[in-house]
Design brief:
The complex is a heterodimer of chains A (456) and B (309). Chain A is mainly α. Chain A is 76% helix and 1% strand. Chain A has 2 domains: 3-176, no CATH class; 203-455, MetI-like (MetI-like fold, Orthogonal Bundle), CATH 1.10.3720.10. A two-stranded antiparallel sheet of chain A has the order 1-2. In chain A, helix 1 crosses helix 6 (157-175). The radius of gyration of chain A is 30 Å and the shape is globular. Chain A starts with a helix and ends with a helix. In chain A, 38% of the residues are buried. Chain B is mostly helical and 309 residues long. In chain B, helix 2 (22-58) crosses helix 12 (274-307) and helix 11 (260-270) runs antiparallel to helix 12. Chain B starts with a helix and ends with a helix. The mean pLDDT of chain B is 86. Classes of the chains: A mainly alpha (456), B mainly alpha (309). Chains A and B meet through helix 3, helix 4, helix 6, helix 7 and helix 9 of A and helix 2, helix 4, helix 5, helix 6 and helix 7 of B.
């Protein structure tokens, strides 16, 4: 018997014993939950009127309510539908009580200038526990009781199939969450950016070289993004120049040359490098690299700028590039290497003439992903690049001093100004974000294409 | 012309070059390997330099008072970091609570259900393919874009203001692909025989997933969650545009706050209290190291489990 047939059996059996008004009631409940949720969220009901905790109540109950009712409807005509509904409600109630208690407890402990003394902490801890127990006792006990009685309910085969099927649809919905978020990101960024496209014009933003949001009333703002595009590209270029040879070297070392013991040390080190917060890199650039770069005797060099940014970015892309490059080198079939070595080549000749060319697309993908990472980096960039809105130019006649000039990246442009921008200015910042998003999408899909080609 | 003649003319015309002597090639190899070792050492040296510097500057700042007093706020840079620790904990709990059900659920569908294509219509298969690419795209989105998105949707459109909830929802979007990918890997590593045995006993697919597959994949799933905890602790850009940056302790989900990473940024860029920034950065690095160790232990357990038995 096919699964479809079983499901049909299960559902018809369900439909036969179920009065239609119950289904209608369930549907009404679903609609009600959604409407309530929508109203609460969209602020048709002024949220401020509900003091502190109530808004949380609205949101959490709104979200869970709709899910709950869908579940309840699915298990409506089963013997234990009520039990499942109650269990879920009780779990939500308990979670809510617990979260509220946590907030209260932590607020009493940490709200002051410094935390309370140990005795007072113990005091408030005990008080919270008592509070928690008294408020949570009834839900917890009934939950316990319901769980206990659960085994006495009959779970028929049809019922299990039905739940199985519902879960399938629920999971299908959940699996869509990632792509829904992607679409929402595109939608909201575009929607916000639209105003600037209409008012300022695409050509003015993409080709303009002056970024001067009209902060003074009456003055018309200028929103040329070219300096930031140049800043992003130059800092990324510098990072690739410095970081990629290092990364590929490390990848070869890890994949081909180093003995096992070295690998055991270097790999976790690289992983750690990937995990370090970008602000720490930024701080390092500010405190250590900037004074070092200031040593270079060029007028106008203050230590912050493209060189500093490139060095910081180079370190930040090392883990990405190294990991993917190492995978690519490892993926080269052993027979290639054996064939080459059997011809009498040295290990290095094999690596250079056989392994690396065979891993070429993977290596390029690694570099491209590194570029994507570098383009998207924000906080470290704000901290070390100087954030000047002028087009980066060489400080002296030597074109290399270009890298000593301050600049601003696209990411930095967004992060520095978004918190206080309004109107066309804000919209232009969203356009900056959209531009960045498109650039990175392009870069990443190129890398993905190359990696897929390698697999094929 | 005989073949020998052909070869000798080729040699004379230098069309065939003989390989360099073994000695020369060995020297070449030694130089190349030397450079490669230098590259690897430079990468590790960078790490040691950064971590070592931050630790040496930061650790002396850290004492009980630093950990238990609240930042003074403003441009003074005085005070400790107690509220930022608590806010970071709140954020981690919130993002993980939001992203884990979605991420694990997505991964379960993509691995356990989407594979049985004979049951699904071509439309469903196409949607699943789009959903998969959605995960890939999301994994490559830079954090400032998540911040912008959170700012537009949660902070502005939904009127949640700068708050824990806005930041948590935006952060959850960022860690979603991390959890999906690691869970997918963990599920794929569960032997087929487990599924077959469970289904053979008459369990439904969902019963099999809950009682057999998820317990077997649990270390992998937990690895993904720990990984995303690390991402949240380290994240700054998203929270810079969604969390508000108040140094006070958030009293509920709708009040603003400041995470540890954000505190480092605020101290470094708005005040001149670099010592306090270093102290906070040192705490951050210690947290990341502990999380990385946890991941290593977990994945070791995972491989041990898959090799043993």
């Amino acid at each position: 018997m096919g699964l479809d047939e079983k499901i049909r059996q299960a559902t018809t059996r369900a439909g036969g014993s179920r009065p239609i008004f119950l289904v209608i009631a369930a549907a009404t409940l679903v609609i009600l939950a959604v409407v309530l949720f929508g109203l609460g969220v969209l602020n048709r009901i002024p949220l401020e009127e509900f003091a502190d905790g109530s808004v949380q109540t609205w949101l959490s109950i709104g979200i869970v309510d709709s899910l709950l009712i869908v579940m309840a409807w699915g298990i409506w005509n089963r013997k234990d539908w009520a039990r499942i509904t109650f269990v879920m409600l009780l779990v939500i109630a308990l979670m809510f009580i617990f979260v509220q208690e946590i907030f209260t407890l932590f607020s009493t402990i940490f709200a002051g200038e410094s935390i309370l003394s140990l005795g007072e902490i113990a005091n408030s801890l005990v008080a919270s526990l008592i509070h928690l127990v008294t408020r949570g006792a009834i839900p917890a006990l009934s939950l316990f009781g319901l769980m206990k009685t659960g085994s006495e309910f009959d779970v028929s085969a049809g019922q299990r199939e039905f739940v199985d099927n519902m879960v399938r649809y629920l999971l299908f919905g959940i699996a869509m969450s990632a792509i829904i978020i992607v679409f929402m990101i595109i939608f909201f960024t575009m929607e916000e950016a639209w105003e600037s496209v209409e008012e300022i014009g695409l050509d003015n933003m993409l080709l303009g070289t002056i970024w001067r949001p009209g902060s003074i009333i009456g003055e018309v703002g200028q929103y040329g993004l070219l300096p930031m595009i140049a800043g992003s590209i130059l800092s990324t270029f510098g990072a690739v120049l410095l970081g990629v040879p290092l990364s590929i070297g490390t990848a070869i070392l890890l994949a081909e040359v180093a003995p096992h013991s070295v690998r055991e040390v270097v790999r976790p080190a690289i992983e750690l490098l990937a995990g370090i917060p970008s602000v720490v890199y930024g701080l390092f650039g500010m405190v250590v690299l900037a004074p070092l770069i200031r040593e270079i005797d060029v007028p106008g060099n203050n230590g912050f700028g493209l060189l500093n940014a490139s060095i910081v970015l180079a370190v930040m892309i090392i883990p990405t590039v190294t990991n993917i490059a190492e995978d690519a080198i490892r993926a080269v079939p052993k027979s290639y290497k054996e064939g080459s070595l059997a011809m009498g080549t040295t290990h290095w000749q094999t690596i250079w003439n056989v392994t690396l060319p065979a891993a070429r697309s993977g290596l390029i993908a690694a570099v491209i992903l590194g570029i994507g990472r570098a383009l998207g980096e924000t906080m470290a960039m704000i901290m070390v690049i100087g954030n000047s809105i002028a087009f980066p130019e060489p400080l002296t006649s030597n074109p290399l001093t270009l890298f000593l000039d301050t600049a601003r990246t696209l990411t930095g442009n967004v992060a520095v100004e978004i918190n206080y921008a309004a109107g066309a200015h804000r919209s232009a910042l969203f356009f900056t974000g959209l531009l960045l998003f498109l650039m990175i999408m392009l870069v990443n899909s190129l890398a993905r294409y190359l990696m897929r080609e390698r697999k094929a | 012309m005989t073949s020998i003649d052909a070869v000798s003319t080729a040699i004379q015309d230098q069309e065939i070059t003989f390989p360099a002597s073994l000695r020369k090639r060995k020297i070449q190899q030694r130089i190349a390997f030397g450079l490669i070792w230098l590259g690897g050492l430079a990468a590790v040296a960078m790490l040691v330099w950064i971590v070592g510097y931050v630790m040496s500057q930061g650790l002396p700042v850290i004492d009980l008072e630093f950990l238990t007093t609240r930042p003074a706020g403003g441009v003074s840079g005085e005070g400790g970091m107690s509220t930022t620790i608590v806010t970071t904990l709140y954020l981690v709990a919130l993002t993980v609570a939001i992203a884990t059900p979605l991420g694990v659920g997505s991964a379960i569908y993509l691995v356990e259900y989407a594979g049985e294509s004979q049951l699904e219509s071509p439309l469903v298969r196409r949607i699943v393919r789009i959903a998969r690419s959605g995960v890939e795209i999301l994994a490559g989105v830079p954090s400032i874009i998540f911040g912008l998105f959170g700012f537009a949707l949660f902070v502005s459109a939904l009127k949640l203001k700068f708050s824990l909830l806005s930041a948590g929802l935006s952060g959850a979007c960022m860690i979603l692909p991390v959890i999906i990918r690691t869970t997918e890997e963990a599920l794929l590593a569960v032997p087929r025989s487990y599924r077959e045995a469970s289904l053979g006993l008459g369990a439904t697919k969902w019963q099999t997933i809950v009682n057999v597959i998820i317990p077997a994949a649990l270390p992998g799933i937990v690895t993904g969650i720990v990984l995303s905890v690390g991402r949240i602790v380290a994240e700054t850009a998203i929270f810079w545009v969604t969390l508000g940056g108040s140094y006070r302790l958030p009293r509920n989900l709708l009040s603003a706050g400041r995470s540890m990473a954000l505190h480092v940024y605020s101290l470094a860029s708005e005040t001149r209290a670099f010592d306090k920034a270093m102290g906070t950065a040192a705490i951050l690095i210690i947290t990341i190291v502990v999380l990385n160790l946890t991941i290593n232990i977990l994945s070791r357990r995972l491989t041990a489990r898959s090799q043993g038995r």
